[in-house]
Specification:
The protein is an alpha/beta fold and 234 residues long. The chain contains nine helices and six strands, in the order H-H-E-H-H-E-H-H-E-H-E-E-H-E-H. The structure holds zinc ion (ZN).
């Protein structure tokens, strides 16, 4: 399939030697520089999850930045060809960071069947496929099922959102997860409650270790996390 050769960051025409992104956007990619994964604000909340090993992201997501434009193109302009490139970029950039050490398989967060049918693809799966290709890891697409959308969460407190997120995922065909280190993969993390909902479901399996990777995450202060009006990105 042929896609127009336009930059996914700014929409300008790409030069012949450019792929996916122009040179100008490429130097403005907002890479996350904090690779002390456990330092992230979110982790204090996740500390009771003993099976959780690491949580990290490639980019910082801010309204209107290059990462936001790339994710928008992937999801809403059906540029699913970007997904594998995004995944490969993540592995190349984070190769020495330790984030992927010991991971046995990648598990992209599923969409509900209705949403996947509407969009035509799961963007997290395309990112995971690019990562899996570079890491030599399998991509699991039938172990976890998303059974519910989450209603608009803007009027919920964080703990209410978390309670909701627990009922969003269900295990299916999951015996292969036992004893494995599974990395959940999503495109954007805002408060992290969606990923945490999936973590809690995976923890039901014996001896599973879990890490979480978001291609981009929104940096939130503790205060804004409590009252955040940012919607979760599905
Ligand atoms: Zn550009």
């Amino acid at each position: 399939m042929l896609f127009p050769r336009l930059c996914c960051g700014c929409g300008q025409r790409l030069a012949l030697d450019e792929q996916y992104i122009c040179a100008e956007c490429s130097v403005r990619l907002p890479f996350e520089s904090n690779h002390e994964w456990v330092y992230n604000l979110r982790v204090s909340r996740w500390a009771d999850h003993k099976q959780l090993e690491r949580i990290g992201a490639l980019m910082r997501y801010e309204h209107g930045n290059v990462a936001a434009h790339i994710i928008h193109a992937l999801k809403y302009h059906r540029r699913y060809d970007l997904g594998p490139w995004m995944g490969r970029l993540a592995v190349e950039r984070l190769a020495g960071s330790g984030l992927f050490d010991g991971v046995d398989a990648l598990l992209p967060l599923p969409l509900t069947r209705a949403r996947q049918r509407f969009r035509g693809f799961n963007q997290a799966e395309y990112i995971a496929r690019g990562m899996g290709e570079r890491l030599g890891l399998p991509v699991l697409t039938s172990s976890l099922r998303r059974v519910a959308e989450r209603e608009s969460q803007t009027h919920f407190t964080l703990s209410e959102r978390l309670e909701n997120a627990r009922h969003v995922f269900e295990l299916q065909d999951a015996s292969g997860l036992d004893g494995q280190h599974i990395m959940l993969v999503d495109d954007v993390m805002t408060t992290g409650t969606t990923l945490l909902g999936a973590v809690e479901v995976l923890e039901e399996r014996p001896a599973v270790r879990i890490s979480c990777f978001a291609w981009a995450w929104v940096m939130l202060s503790e205060a804004s996390m409590a009252t955040s009006r940012a919607g979760e990105h599905n």
